[in-house]
Amino acid sequence: MAGVQDALEIKFRLIDGSDIGPQSFPAAATVLTLKESIISHWPKDKDNAPKTVKDLKIISAGKILENNKTVGECRSALCDVPGGITTMHVIVSQPPQEKDKKAANKLKQNKCACVIL
Fold it and tell me: Is pLDDT of 113 > 80?
């Protein structure tokens, strides 16, 4: 395929519009490797920092990327611009807060029963 590169320049766009990167990744790098890089380069001043790679989702060309796929497999035709930088979006999934867990438990405990006389 013409224009295929051995490495891809990627920047990661966070939910607040700030970016991590751009960084160069080989086509053989996995999405899991990208997530590890995001965690290691996460801005220290951000409150919603992911704790593990399971907390991250990477979206490219409208698709959530799977951890076992390589950058080369995820690359779309739009990314094959020589010298271009690909932007991938990063979503952080936060674990439910204690308050949310308590509210969910309360809903489970409040059961209504009808009595027919």
Answer: no
Token digits of residue 29: 């790098």
In b/e form, how buried is each residue of 50-71, taking b as 16+ CB within 10 angstroms?
A: beebebbebebeeeebeeeebb
pLDDT one-digit tens code per residue, 55-83: 999 998 888 999 998 888 877 655 556 67
pTM: 0.70
Q: What is the pLDDT of residue 58?
A: 92
Q: Are 65 and 74 in contact (CB under 8 A)?
A: yes
Here the tokens at position 71 are 């950058």
**CA pair distance 38, 25, nearest whole angstrom:** 12
